[in-house]
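Hi R.,

Here's the chain you asked about this morning:
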Amino acid sequence: MAQPAVPPTQAAAPSPAALPVPHRVPVREILPWAVFALVLGAALLYFVGAEQGATSLVGGTWVHEFTHDGRHLLGFPCH
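And here is the predicted structure, written out as tokens:
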């Protein structure tokens, strides 16, 4: 005779012990990555949006040409 898929000793609903418990991540572990992402994002925004303008840090036009399509995609004027 075939055995049932669920043994009769187990309940249909999962027990509270079987539910996963979320892992808490301390802020001191997230903070360095958040600061890194903020600095990287600000640098990217500067180079795409403002470089080769009045606050240019790099001489020449290579930064402008490298980020040209990104400027148009993000809505920054460059012409």
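One quick note: The helical segments are 27-49, 62-66, 68-74.

Cheers,
M.
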